[in-house]
């Protein structure tokens, strides 16, 4: 066994230097290991070499000469957290990149997130943020970029963006508010050119919002988007909030379903069909779960102590029943999808402090999922949803060393996932509260 060293030694060597992207050789011992596949080692070790997991063992393990030995002291070691749907850049992108990016990315790491998939936004700013992180100009999670594309021109009698205000409050996909006329078609060559141009600019995924209109082109256009993304070796992700739209997205072959259907309920046959497609579905259940000042730093900062329920936009929770229905129907559909064997993944669809949104989404998930389920949703399944399941999401030899150490045992107390003390990304310690 290598001689134990303190983490302070590592950081002392970095003082005054620019951010280093070099991986560290590490041996993490005396840890409860949750591997993301459902496996648990009560007292084990993980060896990291050259940025990847080199060994996992019960008890102690030897690492390479000179490796830093970290005594986890019985804490829980698990794969890095992944948010598969997050709105990252808020406000004008130029000032945000210069004045906020470093702090906002640090907040993700401190909450345990080592990978984050964008839900859309300024494509150039996303690519620039991704570049700054990957070359070490700022410290942050792995960023997967995404940009919106339209599936139809605005439809007479309704559109896909909501009825004013936060679209989650007033989703036009809900029964009674759906468009009643076919939307105009966008020419195929324009659709393909848009996808091609975005990919050439460095975008990782093309996101579409599908709202099927009677006799409209949305499903056919989405199939064109999917075909073009596959030709260019990127992914299609589709915002679908009703059962009808989810089925259409599955039939079009999208690679990821963004959101759980929450405007109506799936029957068992539909749940099986969607699950058997193998397409990951990203949760975002917490959008419809009220949040409170005691759990949300943004509300505290804006209003002081406020015991009234707040919506995702941090305004008072709507008094109309639609969002409450969504809170219930989303959870039911999530469980039906899971029971049918679906790949259900973690995502928040939020903009505020990552630790707060983690807590809010965990609260919603815990209504219908076990703690062991949620560990898999947050890690292995979320990795599949961002297209990185081969490298991320589970603790397995050969995978990238994205690791989180939490104080406590999330299988006994889910909120222990909030007690992050050590974060490793690509084999490099990026957060140290030891």
Which descriptors would you attach to this protein?
single chain, 434 residues, alpha/beta, Urease, subunit C, domain 1, TIM Barrel, 2 domains, eight-stranded mixed sheet, six-stranded parallel sheet, 17 strands, disordered N terminus
What is the fold-level CATH name, i.e. the topology of the largest domain? Answer: TIM Barrel
Number of domains: 2
Corresponding CATH superfamily of the largest domain: Metal-dependent hydrolases
Radius of gyration over C-alpha positions, nearest whole angstrom: 22 Å
Give the integer mean of the pLDDT values.
92
CATH architecture of the largest domain: Alpha-Beta Barrel
**Sheet with the most strands, sense and barrel status:** 8 strands, mixed
> What is the number of E strands?
17
β-strand percent reads 15-25%
Structural class: alpha/beta
Describe this protein's structure.
By secondary structure, this protein is an alpha/beta fold. The protein folds into 2 domains: 1-80 and 393-434, Urease, subunit C, domain 1, CATH 2.30.40; 81-390, TIM Barrel. It is built from 13 helices and 17 strands. The protein has helices spanning 7-12, 93-99, 101-110, 123-134, 188-200, 218-231, 243-252, 268-276, 297-303, 322-339, 354-365, 371-378, 380-385, and strands spanning 26-34, 40-49, 52-58, 68-71, 76-79, 81-86, 113-118, 142-144, 146-149, 205-209, 235-239, 256-258, 281-282, 344-345, 403-406, 420-425, 428-432. The strands form 3 sheets. Strands 1, 2, 3, 4, 5, 15, 16 and 17 form an 8-stranded mixed β-sheet that branches. A 6-stranded parallel β-sheet has the order 9-10-11-12-13-14.
